[in-house]
Amino acid sequence: MTTPTFTHYPLTLVSPSFDDPLTDLIIELDYLRKKPLSGTTHPLLFFQLKHLFHILESIGSARIEGNNTTVAEYIEAMLGDQQAGHMPSVVEIRNMEEAMTFIDDYVRDRPLDRQFVRELHQMVVKGLAAPPVAKVTAHRGSFGLMLFVLTKPAMYRRIHY
């Protein structure tokens, strides 16, 4: 594997013209950023849906790492199946949920620095044994470390569909 080399490319700010649709989006996003969060959905229902999506996101994230727990298995474990609740696959998903709650609670008050990422990592692996090197599956962690090298600035690359 070759060692990546750094090539400096001067960055330019995008300055869309006033008749460009991007200008309207930028102004609208800036307005929405300052607007308080509200809606017609009752807060209790909103937070129940948010919790459901956190569960689905945690299960999806665990799937990327090779966890095969189904939504039904996880819900059963959360509803009181003591034996299933201590399975490493269920603990992994529960840890991810707790990490997302931690992010929701503290991301506005704290910088996203090395310490914050360390705390998240400790939450995600809490109560899990590290897999032995010889027993790591082909799927677990295969998406965890990738090397990206850009050879040209994005504005010069062509994307073909």
How is this structure best described in words?
The protein has 161 residues and is mostly helical. The chain has a domain at 41-128. The chain has helices at 21-34, 43-64, 71-78, 82-85, 88-106, 114-125. The radius of gyration is 21 Å and the shape is extended. Mean pLDDT is 79; it is low at 142-150 and 156-161. InterPro entries: Fido-like_dom_sf (IPR036597). It comes from Fibrella rubiginis. This is Fic/DOC family protein.
List the helices and strands and how they pair.
Layout: H1 21-34, H2 43-64, H3 71-78, H4 82-85, H5 88-106, H6 114-125
Helix pairs in contact: 2-5, 5-6
List keywords for this structure.
single chain; 161 residues; Fic/DOC family protein; Fido-like_dom_sf; mainly alpha
In short:
49% of the residues lie in helices and 0% in strands. It has 161 residues and is mostly helical.
- Give the DSSP E fraction (strand runs of 2 or more residues): under 5%
Helix content, binned percent? 40-55%
| Count of beta strands | 0
**Which structural class fits the helix and strand makeup?**
mainly alpha
The number of distinct helices, counting runs of at least 4 residues, comes to 6
Q: What would you report as the Rg, rounded to the nearest angstrom?
A: 21 Å
Largest sheet: none
Spatial gap, N to C terminus:
29 Å
Order of helices and strands: HHHHHH
Q: Mean of residue pLDDT?
A: 79
